[in-house]
Amino acid sequence: MSIEPAPVSFENTANAFEYKSDKELKKAAFLFSSMGYSALVKVGTRLTPWMIRSGLPVQGLIRDTIFSQFVGGETLEETAGVARKLWEYHVQVILDYGVEGGDEGEEGFDHAKGEFIRVIDYAATQPNIPFMSIKVTGFARFGLLEKLDAAMETAEGSLMKRYTQALEALSAAEKEEWQRVSQRMQQICRAAADRKIGVLVDAEETWIQDPVDVLTILMMEQFNRGRTVVYNTIQLYRADRFVFLKDSYEAAVQRDFTLGAKLVRGAYMEKERRRAQEMGYPSPIQPDKETTDLDYNQGVAFCIEHLDRIALIVASHNEYSNLYAVELLQKKGLPLNHPHIHFSQLYGMSDNITFNLAKAGCPVSKYLPFGPIKDVIPYLMRRAQENSSVSGQTGRELGLIRKEMKRRGL
């Protein structure tokens, strides 16, 4: 007798918010209802960074509101408590040291590299932290990435051929600088490989992404043999990324490594469209949400079709995409905890997806940033803007929270 696979539902708010106290639930309701006012968010996201830079006493207010909702803590030690709490509900963690570059010179870049390795060392001591996240802009000068990308844009051939040609456009000093960037990346990935931690390389803006892709593919070729250490982040709101995903798979087959692919929709839409308009080139962003959704779900299907060679992270807040991945696994008779599948959502959002996936036996994590308030402000401002601008996101979060509050009689 065949047993039908159990359906996964994202409507169960008792599972979704079991980890939140009544007080925490009320605070989340207040925060999401505030983010529903786009005018308030617009003013707040402009004023907050200025107030922090000016030294105004607002850190306490930020800590008690948006910071505690979306960030694990200011230090690794503070964040450990959040990670332990999540593990009680079988939810894992992707640790993210919230540094976003800043071009602080070679000393600053070496410091960031050291911090990333410290995170790896810590993650290796914990039972539920299989991954950590890095941004190449944390240890590479933005202008250098920009110059390399521009040179690759005008070169011809495959990604690697264009990269080789672009290197020749750098001065001797810039070549040495790029060598140091590559060495930092290698040291981070080597530490992760030694300690059996996965490294998720964040996506960047389109005009610096090509050299980041090259570095990441070179690291995958070196370290993704036997087990998957390095994952590239592929933003499917870009019109060219589904083709890039398939090209990356072909490279993995030819060079005999496992492709680590973290699929996201994307994070820089308004900035990308504005720059394209200002500089007079076609927008790299999909024409509409439907096209993005189509490419995202095609990407999920492609990866699950090739799970022997692709390790997939479904990093999505879209309920359909997560259900689609689960259904594809079930149709293929694959276990929901297949070693090459993982699900992830941002800490503080879409708990109905995360905790119900965990209940169903899926490997799932919260992307958990940490760092001093002043360093994570860019991340927090993006979360506020995202919840304000994404159609229905705040309403959905708020509706689920209120449903649970009603269930609890609050």
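(the above was protein one; protein two follows)
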Amino acid sequence: MALKSAWLNLNLDCALNFRSASATMKVFIQPNSNYYSITRYVLKLIEKNVNQQFQFVDAAEHGDIIWDTEHPKSEPIAIKFYDEIKEKSLDKNHFASNTTITTNDLKKDSIATIFFMVNCMQEFNPSAQQLDSFGRFKFEASYQSRLKNIEQNLVQKEIDTLCLKWNITPSKKKSTFFISHDIDTIYGSFLQDGFWALKNMKIGVVLSLILWEFTNKQHWKNIDQIIKLNSEKDILSTFFWIVNKGKGLQEIKNADYDINQERHLLKMVDDSKFVNGLHKSCSTMSIDEELKKGNINSTFNRYHFLKFLSHSDWKKVSDSALTFDCSLGFAEHYGFRNSYGKAFQPFDVLNNKPFDFVEAPLHFMDGTFHKYMKIARNETAKNIINFYENNSVNCDFSLLWHNTYFTNYKYHSFLDEYKKILAFIYENKIECVMPNQLINENKIAW
């Protein structure tokens, strides 16, 4: 009966060729090899993706799938790639013209290919030319830009191909949304909305802004409105707060508020069953120092200004109390920065093991559409919805909408676009997940 349940929607002739998702497959990986830990890690990733169990055995003759350069039935192994990882010196020509890592006899090593993409190995030891003036890895320096595949979930395609090869039923879990709000400024509306109103001769708006300023009801101090709007569609979301005020490193503006004077806003979030997190400021303070300073009662984070460099900052995240980060996204373009749609546990190349936290890549940000790509405002929701529909399974889509974009003035039409997205989520019964759920679903047992 279990097999019938698992294969209910499959043609019987096809289904008989596949294992049930719960069937354990035996795997042998040559111990003490340069490819052992990476292969094991990718298989653990696949376990989470398709709800498949792998049993690691100590002899090749006991394995259903084998990685051993001395064995005739071994899966392809790109030895040179694993040697490069061990030496911490990757060839910059990987993915120069295609998204495949091959053996010496040009067979695809799918494990190496998945590992390279998921863990942003193109960003390992980046050159100065690959970074922008703020030290962020540039989209234009990526293979996604060069090969025009930023909108393709390439890792999922590789996993599905391996599943078919190994007679495992690929997963078709409905994609979810993880919705969050970075709180950079709550007092900027008077000047920014005010300038917009004067420019557009909206005298009534100017008067309203002046009144709200005197009554301490600033238009961007709208946490209650965001909570109400999301709650109307049965959606919970996460708010990320900056603990340092004023200009930070490289003159980047941090918060325009003192977090200790806004404790009531964080309490409002908690009381509403929404979630607070740290928005790591551009400063010399450590993550743990900021968590303590802001009395942030969670272990979730996103780097402010997306001033984040994967491998070096993953080390900082791992050295802190954090269990969850969601900074991995290109500011300049929406899509898959690591060619993968799901949250995952990054791999620590220096210590040859997974880091101890989960990363949820950022796929959509309001400012990406508005300031970087300059997409027509009334096309924003359409782009996001179309992207979801093209990737409707096996993705945990991270959507960032700043509190400043919940406005009737300077960014007025972006509020309408957000409402369109919420309506799409609600009408299609799409699950919205929270950090702890993403951690529980994607943390691997090492």
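Reviewer note on protein two: Residues 176-442 form a domain with the TIM Barrel fold (CATH 3.20.20.370).
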